Amino acid sequence: MVGSPALVAVPAIWMFCADEQARQWSIVASLAVVLGCLATVALRQRGTGHRSGADTFAELRPVPGNTPHTSGPPALPARLPARWPAQLRGAAAVFCCTTAFLGFVALAAGDAERPAPVDGIAAAGGVIQDVRVTSVRNSERHNPSRGHDFYTATSVVALPEARTGRSVPATVSTNTPEPLRPGSEVTVLYAPSKPGLGAVQGKPGPLRASLDGAPLTPGARTALLLIWLLGAGFLGGLQILHSGGFRTLTRWTKHDRAVRGRCTGDGISQLAPATDTGAGTEQSGRKGTSTKLDQLVITTDGGEVRFVLDDATDGYAEQLGAEPLWLCWRARQKAAQQLTPAVLVGDSGWALHGQMVLTEAERLAENNETAIPGGTGAPVDAQREARAWDPRAGWPLRVGRGAMTAAALALVLAGLLATTSLGAGRWWAAAGGVLCVLGAVAAETLSTAWRATEPNASGEKDPPSSATAR
């Protein structure tokens, strides 16, 4: 948790801190905190050993399983633990990854140090002022494919000296929307006390940013800030929707159902796209794409059903050990809804949030295998409590060395960009940093991608029993 704020602080400091030395030291300190977190994770893995997802799942189990109950199945808790902490953890991970990508773009778009002419002028008390052009040569018109025409030239301007009031000629490279002529005025940055240092021509905003020591112009900073917040917020919201959205089971209603079962398998299957028998999909001839489901197979008296998680489930069934449990879900269906909020409540006192395929839930209801929580067959005990079970909370135990190595290299490149002026090489260093971040993410996700194409993956029309049990 300490590394996330430190990572988010890097682009914020880069965009808003104008003091060059304070900015560089603050960014280096933030990157050092993140690097220290990676080192802590590596040392913890070295002490406890690297863990797979299934091992982590077992270690995070709140209470030992297979607790005997002499008087029948235990009652359901009156209130279930919320799933929003796990959802926020996933959204924070997406936010941090997006921040890393856009952070490298921001680092490449600016410069860690002021150019030498600007640095000398700023040290001598530089000001931004409109001055008169005395001569123009090498004027050239440019017609870009996008935007308006502009003109470049080598111009001589008259810089007023503060002490004597006389004008000192200085040669500057100009970039203006209109061609310059003797007598025209341009905006320059120069030092009135030392006009011999020369001048830098430009627009007032970028010149002010250079004079203040800001690495980015106001326009670039605003654009990057908007892209960062909107993009990261949008992707974080998508992550929450992918994990079931804000629909969750915390209190029982008349629309909820429950059934006894055991976990007998895990793996991946495919959920066929919803079809509209009216004027929708079938009549228009369009076909949707199937959805990959990471699932646990729950065996009940009415057959097998899929309990869907938003993370890989390989090995979870073995760790559950066929412990008796309650499978609960919300039976109320909305238009085009294929999955509904669900929760597993183990007899040993844990609760795992996920989703359930509605067609399979309806099949159980048709067979009269379900009960309403609080009614006959599914008693509710207000004194009983269940603790949330989030396997992702143990990610430090299972993150791969390749991912940590790529992340560490990305931090080194970020520190280099924040403290050194690399010229045209800044974009190459930023591209390398983005590739390292992509490599770190891919190292954790591609390891399970092959399972989606295994022969035991099935479509939604197939019975759940063919979807897995591994």
Short structural description:
With 470 residues, this protein is of the alpha+beta class.
Q: What does it look like?
A:
The protein has helices spanning 3-16, 20-48, 53-59, 84-109, 116-123, 204-212, 218-242, 281-284, 316-320, 358-366, 401-419, 425-445, and strands spanning 76-77, 127-142, 150-160, 167-176, 185-190, 199-201, 256-271, 291-300, 303-309, 325-330, 339-346, 350-357, 380-381, 387-388. Helix 1 (3-16) packs antiparallel against helix 2 (20-48), helix 4 (84-109) runs antiparallel to helix 12 and helix 11 (401-419) packs antiparallel against helix 12. A hairpin with a 6-residue loop joins strand 3 and strand 4 (167-176). The model is unreliable at 62-68, 277-286 and 447-470 (pLDDT under 50). The longest helix is centred in the first third of the chain and has 29 residues, at 20-48. It is an alpha+beta fold and 470 residues long. The protein starts with a helix and ends in a 25-residue tail after the last helix. The chain is elongated and about 100 Å long. Helix content is 37%, strand content 23%. It contains twelve helices and 14 strands. The strands form three sheets. The protein has a six-stranded antiparallel β-barrel. It has a five-stranded antiparallel β-sheet with strand order 4-3-2-5-6. Strands 1-13 form a two-stranded parallel sheet.
